[in-house]
């Protein structure tokens, strides 16, 4: 059975608190462990996985937009 509106809201709120904690603590997950446990407890495993992946993708996308694409260059052997 899919989550009802209250369950979804609780999940989203716990996600937002956890992600805010990570941002405030320079991505130090150890300082946000209790909020991560709450987030994982309030949301289904598939939602947790999706939200974490989306956050990483959004951070990567922002980095590309601010710093641009920097291709990897192998050392040239002579």
Automatic annotation (TrEMBL):
It is found in: Mitochondrion. Signal peptide: none annotated. GO terms for biological process: mitochondrial ATP synthesis coupled electron transport; respiratory chain complex IV assembly. Its main location: mitochondrion. Keywords: Disulfide bond, Mitochondrion. Transmembrane segments: none annotated. The keyword Mitochondrion applies. GO terms for cellular component: mitochondrion. It comes from the Eukaryota. PANTHER family: CYTOCHROME C OXIDASE ASSEMBLY FACTOR 6 HOMOLOG. This is Cytochrome c oxidase assembly factor 6 homolog. It comes from Branchiostoma belcheri (Amphioxus).
């Amino acid at each position: 059975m899919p989550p009802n509106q209250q369950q979804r809201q609780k999940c989203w709120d716990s996600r937002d608190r956890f992600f805010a904690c990570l941002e405030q603590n320079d991505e130090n997950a150890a300082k946000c462990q209790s909020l991560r446990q709450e987030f994982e407890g309030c949301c289904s495993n598939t939602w947790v996985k999706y939200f974490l992946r989306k956050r990483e993708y959004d951070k990567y996308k922002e980095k590309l937009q601010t710093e641009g694409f920097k291709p990897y260059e192998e050392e040239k052997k002579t």
